[in-house]
Amino acid sequence: MPRLAIILPCLLVSAVASAQESHPAMDARGYLTLDGADTLGHEELSFGLGSLDWGHGVPGEDDLVSATLVGALGLHVLGIPLELGASLPISIASGVTDAQGLGDAGFHLKVHVAQLGHIGFGVIGSVYVPTSSSPMLGYSGTTPELRGVIDANVGRWRFAVNGGVRHGTLAMDATASTQFPAGVAGAFAIVPQKLEVVGEVFADDAQTHQLQALGGLKVYLAKNSYLSLGAGRGLAEDASANGTPDFRALISIVFEPKPAPQTSAIIPDGPEEPIRAEVVKQDEPPPPPEIDNSPIVPDNTPGCTHSNPQDDTDCPDRAAVVVGKTDIVILKSIDFEFDKAIIQTKSYPILDAVALALRDNPDIELVEVRGHTDERGDDAYNLDLSDRRAAAVVTYLVGKGVDANRLTSTGYGETMPLDPAHNEAAWAKNRRVQFQIRKRNGELM
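The chain above was modelled as a monomer; its predicted structure follows.
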């Protein structure tokens, strides 16, 4: 991987601004200081100013200003999504003892452990090395930290919980301590993929209840590159007496350019389609899905004997649909016109069979039609395309007589791959439509 020889020296990622302050999030999947469970894509790079952080009324100082350079590199090793990071804070403290210079450099490994529906699980292992130029700005020895991350994405909302343990010796007084950093975060997309409002409540050490609250905005400048603005304070009547700043403000600007193969062209849905290197305008309304409104022909009527496949091309393909407890499994793919939310006519029989399955199982009260794409192409465009395709399937089924109240649709883009590999076979698996049963016999699934 010759590209890695160029990228790796660029890594300066996400460390603590001081021994008493939280580090910025490792990448755009995070919030302000807390992290998300997902990792960067394979060989995807993140770098920039993780935070320019000002704390007023910090214990022992009047003011503490820290600039933390951040960066990260995503790698998929043996199918496991990983993210490598390192960091370097530069701090200026004024107060009882003035100090300025480097803080402790940190090196990080994030692993996306699992994804169960909307919920993701991750682990972040960190090591901080004593590079601080002043005892006020770091630890006296190597300091390990381990954190667990759980996050969830529901519509425009996303949430995360971080919690872990860190052990180190403060350089300023040679005090060894074990700390338990923890926090919760939430974000709401005011404009999806463009603007989020973010809030956090966290403690650098949950044992001492030194809670801080931060709120702010996250502006996505291009793809995942972002600008963050935040402010907050310690959650106590006299915050500084409780070990937290009276007031805190931060600004971040981080760049996440994606690798050229993912941005230079729009990749077709199948190997037979040519690659089109053109820009798609996302603000154009999607074309209406083409629907065959002809009635469904039951399997037991003349003309649908299945004895001659050439005569039965318009008949429901019931053999390709299996109704399970929590989902309706289709054994054939639902195909669309290239780069469109128009269902190909060859997929009508499988959708007709889904409609028949819903008719034959009135106990199924709500089904979520899920649209998925592969990883190639722009994230925001893939999300929009998958959403429009899922909606097209719902429209088709409603046109076949399925009650619209029994159907809902959601696009997940490239966020839930079945196969994490980066080849045509994996991409073919990941481009799919699924039917998840959400309510049955009055019970939510």
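Residues 2-258 form a domain with the Porin fold (CATH 2.40.160.40).
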